[in-house]
Amino acid sequence: MIQATDTIRRADEVPGVGRVLVVIPTYNEADNIAVIVGRVRRAAPAVQILIADDNSPDGTGAIADALADGDAHVQVLHRQGKQGLGAAYLAGFGWARERGYQAVVEMDADGSHAPEDLPALLDAARDADVVIGSRWTSGARVLNWPLRRLLLSRGGNLYARLALGMPVSDATGGYRVYRISALDAIDLNSVTSQGYSFQVELSRLAHRAGVRIVEVPITFAERERGDSKMSPKIVAEALWRITAWGVRDRRQAVRRGLHGTATGQARWP
Ligand SMILES: Nc1nc2c(ncn2[C@@H]2O[C@H](COP(=O)(O)OP(=O)(O)OP(=O)(O)O)[C@@H](O)[C@H]2O)c(=O)[nH]1
Ligand SMILES: [Mg+2]
């Protein structure tokens, strides 16, 4: 009996990491959610999946419920309305912490983040607190992205790196593993981002907390179905927030007599 329980427990753990919850935020992803859940289940059978749906008008929540009914590895967090990616992730992180998970994964529902890359990310998490799936490191590939999106991502990352002094190639990327202990080291209550500057904000906070961050090359593909939620408002939010953080960091560095260096940088691998 004890042996059987042990076997079940180990089957639901990722070696060297523990119990892992993949949080998939959704807003109008009815055409994508079943496909992505199926791919995650095949690529990483040990992980649990939480779909964090913001009451999508296209019925994504009901499809998610049906998936959860048929699979004990899938659960759904129904949220009241569209509150942004950052809020959905923070709710998912809290859900994971309350239930004793050791790590959470961020993954888009639209197929841009290949579940087939997840084993490599989890493998890297054995020796890291945060793993960033990077589009802009050696060995990564970006498929079918229009030039304007490529330029936006490269430009945004260059700006974030220069403004915030973070030696990370893809601070805006949203395919990540966080150990819960790393999230505990970050003051999540201070997070204010709503759109995809959430990813930059968490990169910055992790960097400042001095946790171990590694990047793993991924194959990123343009979404095939459904509509992007990217908007000029989301880009503008990222731009002004990065600028404000950069100014604040520099002021702090000056006050500490460390002009030009960022806190925690020496601990970055
Ligand atoms: N719960 C929730 N999920 C959201 C919200 N906004 C976006 N998402 C989800 O977040 C993920 C990323 O959104 P996308 O629209 O793909 O944004 P993006 O990847 O930056 O943009 P594209 O590259 O154009 O697809 C998807 O799974 C969305 O369904 C939101 O307000 N609430
Ligand atoms: Mg997308």
TrEMBL record:
CDD domains: DPM1_like. Residues 22-185 form the Glycosyltransferase 2-like domain. Keywords: Glycosyltransferase, Transferase. Coiled coil: none annotated. It comes from the Bacteria. The keyword Kinase does not apply. Belongs to the glycosyltransferase 2 family. This is Polyprenol monophosphomannose synthase. It comes from Micromonospora trifolii.
